[in-house]
Amino acid sequence: MTPQRLEEILDHARNRRFLVIGDLMLDEFVWGKVGRISPEAPVPVVEVTGESFYPGGAANVARNLREFTETVSVLGAIGQDASGRRLRGLLADQKIELLDSVNPVDFGTIVKTRIIARHQQVVRVDRERPLELSKAQVEEVMKAFRPKLSELDAIVFEDYGKGFVAAELVSRIAQEAKAAGKLVTADPNPKNPIDWSGMTVVKPNRAEAILAAGITCRDPDAPPDKDPDLSRAGDILLKKWNAKYVLVTLGEHGMMLFESGKKPHHIPTKARQVFDVSGAGDTAIALFTLALTGGATAVEAASIANHASAVVVAKLGTATVNRAELVTSFRDDES
Q: How far apart are CA 128 and CA 116, in angstroms?
């Protein structure tokens, strides 16, 4: 695909409206340097030089979309704590609309803290308590969702397995969205065996795809286009989920696109440097969805998602890709 075609797709997607539904998180990065080993235990002592905070989880999908379009909303749970207030402020600063629905007083905002020393992650600390949506809470989410439905062009489910993406909620929203003719995409989580039937696109990674297809997971011993387990999983999932597309991310091997009645299409990775893979999956589902709303074919959308993921893994932290970086990636590919 040429950079000119990319620009055309991005122009068409500029006015599209998106809703991201899923587990909202606060990503904290503690930056520092290591100069010695602790006398208390054989661990490095990190001398902190700075801290950064970003919207994470499903909110990072929204961040990636917001780089290319004006109207992005998120629907999820945020605690009424200091981390929740910080996350709300970050979303407001980036002009991402938060649809309030489920915010229990006793719910702690999910926080992932990564301690980085000299560009190397030393440790990650997770603060979380998975949420279990009650029937009443599902109804509250539906009340927040329904007034937005007519305005939307696409809905993205981002499931980190923290409880907000409940089976009943997915089923009801997907049914109403499909009836309204909306594009619906999903990034699943293996810990949450949801029926993703009726989605336009489902984007698992290879391990998730193999598991969801009910195949015994083995390390691949062949390239993606000759991987029998991957091919079989793609065929099974297209039927199981009745999805238009299944896009399987393959890490350093790129992506494999499955479409009913067509031969699987392998998109090799464009990553030249990999500093941090955190958030790469968020970028992939965001840009694949965005591209489809801009009139891209599935193969074009997969190529755009692949280039976008290559850009973000070359950055430290929970990063996004912008239009200039994406266009440059395609131009570099031509040269």
A: 20
